Fold these 3 entries.
Entry 1:
Amino acid sequence: MVVEVADARLPFTSRHARLPDLVKEKPRVLVLSRRDLADPALTGDWEAYYRSQGERVFATSLRRRGEARRILTAIESWWSHSPSSPLLFVVVAGLPNVGKSFLINQWIGQARLPVGNRPGVTRAPRWVRVGQHLAVLDTPGVFEPRPRRSEERLALACTGILPEGKYDPEEAATWLVGRLAAHPAGRRALAERWHQQESSPSSRTPCTSEVLGELARARGFWRPGGVADLRRTAEVLLAEFRRGELGRITLELPPSMSSPVVRNSVE
């Protein structure tokens, strides 16, 4: 069995596009992690969409062990109805930093596998036993060998899936502000935490220096000589989003919804 882990804030873009071809006919479960950071209504919509496509899907916050155990119970129940061997082998796969090792630790009930809120913590595959009947393989996060669209890369950067050094923080933060401005919770967060006037989304796309310069002035982030510190502003904004301090925000909608918060990545 394969358990694919994706980020609930990017339920499509944070999936490995080639995984279905790689696992072929093996049973597969999709876990949308970080449910506590995503829009709850949209998470439900994504679950409904994937179920309509015939997928087994669970959304979980991972930090609540009971939710992670619910996934484990479902896997064990499925296996108990058709056991082909005394041991079920489960591979946990997905992009970097989506919560694969954290999920397994929750199943085990202890922090046996190293975890961190950054890509690349898991360096090599590792088997662990979970209970009497499961052998679980934790795998390093990998990207499929295909070019990603610019918007996809920026979304992956904002959620902490794309490694540092693979994106420009100022570009990613500017893109994120545009997405936040299109979301009611995001507009409130910008107004409350960054002292931005809450307004309706604009069709005009301001440049990076305009967007981050205004935020830097609001927080008092200055470099010597009275120059706005755009880099620090970008890094702080991205960190606040990743921690959920800007609200529960999902960055894409399922194709069944006609007015996406951002451009829909499902094509």
Entry 2:
Amino acid sequence: MTGEITVNNRWFSMLGYTRDQFQAPCVKQWEALCHPDDVVSAKLALEQHINGDAQAYDKVVRMRHARGHWCWIQSRGCLINDGAGNPTKIFVGINQDVTERYEAYHQVQLLTQSLPGVIYSYRMGPNGDHAFTYVSSRVKEFYGISPETALIDPNAIFDLILPEDIERVRDSIKSSYLALADWCCEYRIRVGGRIRWVKGVARAEALPDGYVSWYGMVVYIDREKALEQELQRLSYTDELTGLFNRRHFIGQLEQLSCHTQRYGTAFSLISIDIDHFKEVNDTYCQWPFILTHLWPIKLTHLS
């Protein structure tokens, strides 16, 4: 190859130049306009095509605009063949300014990195086949695997869900698929020996081929779950003694009553009266201490 380049006026205007500013476009001038970090990889891609290792040349490089900023230029092309079907030394291609697309992609990448969870898109077909079509880089932090691994094998993520939760997760996805409804599920994952609570939310969209795609995010909810469990504990226990309160007692009584009515089983209700409790409490003001230590003694005798 001679290194000579023939381009139309659109190529010059794409970079903010005019044809008059270039006496004879050549490879060296192209290299001078390219970003130094992109020249080597572009040359390598071209050599792979010339040597027959790649069917065509397809590369995106940064090129310096006449105003000083960098443009993302996509170059596509191939060697043309002669009448006998043998490749010549003439390379024909097209250059396209894809700066807006690349800048938008870069902004999306920055956005996904700033969000507190894993951004993903997931699809499932009528036969149950499924795959992730996009997974943000934070999947490494959450699930301990790379985005590439998740795209190749979706079960790499599902296998990390606790056995107690996996069926519930799969059922929720199936229900979302059938109803074409938004998906929301809270479940636990085990990564590196540590169990974490996560919450997944996604918007479902039907595709023409019978598939459904979900676009959503997974976030940690360990603090929310700990607070939820603490609030539940406080609602059913006495703050001073730590023993179950009247609300818990009524709830358990209602469950046992429903179980008895449904299955015909029997249960016993025992009422215990503590002698002289008022006198002891009025004298020593130690009723929380008395109840806390008396309760396990009663349970031991009853069992």
Entry 3:
Amino acid sequence: GEAIDNESGIAKIEIVELNNRVVNIPVFNIGDTRVTFSSDKIDPNLRSSFTLRITNRAGCEVLADPVYVRLDPSAGQREFSFNMLHTDRFLYVNNNGLPKIHVSINNRALNLVANEEGEGRSGNTYFMLKEGQKLIDIASYLHEGENQVFVKCDATATGTADLLFADVQLGEIDDSIILPTAFALNQNYPNPFNPETRIAFDIPVNWSAPVTLRIYNMQGQLIQTLVDGVMPPGRHEVVWNGRDASGQPVATGMYFYQILSGEVKAVKKMMMTK
């Protein structure tokens, strides 16, 4: 990492808190505008964080408390949950092969999907390179004080990814919106699932017809309606919690989800396991 103060320069850097990390701060001259420090994780299977107090020559202080997690399905590091402050508004992702990463912040989904371009977003889906870095401003997902964060990847995926939630922006944010050119219903994720799964669909530009997304069992009986109304263009994702319209858990087995909008009708299968 790097501490930067281009005004009066840095006077002091103190370690306030360490959680499963070692931080090395080199000797520097008072008044230096940039100080580069290093940090290493102790136990790779656990979440880690640290807090630094940085003071400049004018006496102004700032706390830096990034949170770091590594996703590595082959090592059993598939999901993490933790709380963090609203000041950690920048999400850095260094992807090394994962096709998809699911992040939930205060129960709002933020999906990272790898493609060849690795640029832009559609709705709450951000595109990243399969091998490369991504920076996202997640301020709109956060509220004052503590925020609940959940990070997960598919257990069968290959590759790793390093995620850093920090309060300092290092690099340019790619927030360009890519709107779909065609209506599409995507395969649910995960599948098979228990107890919940996510269903994504694309709505193209200038689409005005209402959208209906419903769940049916093998007998063709309606189980649940997830979407019923007009939706804006972009990629949308809804969560089915594996319950019917009355709130009761459904039985193990095959289910269909169907989307209807104007002349468009699409159906896909999914499997609930217990």
